[in-house]
Amino acid sequence: MFLRLADGDTPCVGKVYYKFFTLVTAFDTIPGLTAVRRTSLKLLAEQRWAFVHSDSHYSAGFCVDPEYWDSDYGQEANHEVMTGFRNSVKKSTLSSEESARVMDQWIRFRMAEGCFADEHCLVQAKILPGYKWWLAWGSMTPDLQRFAIRVLSQVACSSSCGRINNEADYIKSKKRNRMKHFTHEREIYVHHTLQVLDKLENVEYEEPVILWDADINSEENTSDEEEAAKDND
């Protein structure tokens, strides 16, 4: 389920930190594992986390994602999270004064002051994608709003880059191997942009939203896949 969350074009940077934490703690609840096997799995997961972890992608995203707004998640008490968040704010702002404004506005966000105390605001924090929620509710904290949208609108991995490489292979084929780099680059841009426009101009288009707690192995999903396979046949 964690791979399904991270591998895609849907922005989910704010979800990764907490989901990875729940993944590691879940090893304690898996039945049938020996203590040695459980320890080795945790070690592999922690090594992978140390390899992929970055301030802007995960610590900062965890701090500003409205889904984890509740004080029960305790971001302000986690030294690693807060250090990464502060470092990300410093990198993203032009001056120490702007950094101070972002941190001050983040405190107002965490303490649910002003419009953040609205009941609809709390409900939509669990429904809307993070960057869209900040577009709708972040006007009271403009500096933090800009920072949060910049962070939460990013994807979590480079899968989309791999798809673009496939498009590049499709355009510059063996029959067109003398194409210049500039022409190749522009054709990729046009090809990819036309695909995006086709989706956006479709009146029934909806941006894909991952159901974070969805079980991809559930009977419902399995039956849907079987029905789709029958239709294709």
TrEMBL record:
InterPro entries the UniProt entry points to: HATC_C_dom, RNaseH-like_sf
Name of the protein: HAT C-terminal dimerisation domain-containing protein
Domain HAT C-terminal dimerisation residues, every copy: 120-191
GO-annotated molecular function: protein dimerization activity
SUPFAM superfamilies the UniProt entry points to: Ribonuclease H-like (SSF53098)
Coiled-coil annotated residue ranges, if any: none
Native source species: Cymbomonas tetramitiformis
